[in-house]
Amino acid sequence: MTFAPRLLKVADDTAARDELKTLGVDPVGIERMTAKMLLRLVKIDRVPCRAANILKQEMLALGGDAAVARGTVACSLPTTDVILIGTLKQLEQLARRLGVQPFGLADLGQELIQLLDWLDKPATLLRGRTVELDLSRPRIMGILNATPDSFSDGGRYNRVDAALMRAGEMVAEGADLIDVGGESTRPGALAVSVEEELDRVIPIIEALHAEFALPLSIDTSKSGVAAAAAAAGVEFVNDISGLQFDAQMPKVVATSSAGLILMHTRGRPETMQHDTKYLDLTGQVISGLRDSLSRALAAGVKVERIAVDPGIGFGKDVAGNLELLRHLDELHSLGRPLLLGTSRKSFIGTILGEDDPVQRLHGSLATVALAVAAGVRLLRVHDVRASREAALTAWAVVSGQRP
Ligand code: HH2
Asked: Into which CATH architecture does domain 39-120 fall?
């Protein structure tokens, strides 16, 4: 006799419930078992050894486990990174049990509850200055560079009439918002002055705002440009420095009530590719974005106005970009909507041996589909129609819904 056991994949709570329902499980059983069907791995950095030992004991008692560095039991190390290994149910139980524990573990319990909630229910709303973006499905941010030197579209749309025409094309192709930039941030690009950047973007933003109803964002890391752009009608500030380059930026964004995209970078575009080594790339990107998020919140930017972006190509080499793309889901640990910009970037050119950015569409679309599967809901792209179709198809597969 053969039973032919087979692998079952359940991606989330809904999928787990559906499987149990199909099996004919009692409703009480469905409640009990759903959270047992979802495996969760949670990494915590630099946990004091006494606390790590308690985590290990508690997880073992709950039928899970916690990986710690050798030497932790005897406390021969001051701290250890910890990987909690368990089902959603076990981790929820752990979080509750930590409430009575010493060494800061009660706080960890609260953080765990928050994290598990974010992972299960990623944010689906992003507010701008006056608009709300519904991110229950993917949205497309069309790129409009009013620069002479951007790596893909430089010099093409830096006059108002050309910019209006390009924006019109992107609207017709289904863009949900348009990102206007006045300074190239490609590797090695030199910074331009505030005056120069204002001259490039403000007339274009005014014209776009007068002509089109869709929301605009300004791609800048300068507070003076952000303030003028918000006054001219943009809804979002897209800061590739994640509030690192201009000390006035957090206040300016808070005062303008604009939405804020915080991107991770290490170093300025001019020199950011000189050092692309990280000890723990994804961990460092998440912790850099966490710092940016704290800075924004401290200045008074409302949390529902903030999205985050790992910054593909910014201080990362090809292997690093690919690693980040493999680990995109981990960015849900920040509890904010995810934006991604891979469009036509050089790592795709390296993979495919393609020097011309315009010829990198198919590679770009592969990253769009994978990003959507990982829960990214804002895609910053040059090729609006193709990206939108790839994103919506990928979304239909992973969500079972149709736009
Ligand atoms: N990439 C670029 C510029 N701005 N903003 C966000 N949030 N994410 C990105 O990945 C990102 C960005 C670089 O691309 P591009 O604007 O096309 O080129 P250039 O910097 O040469 O103008």
From this structure: 2-Layer Sandwich (3.30)
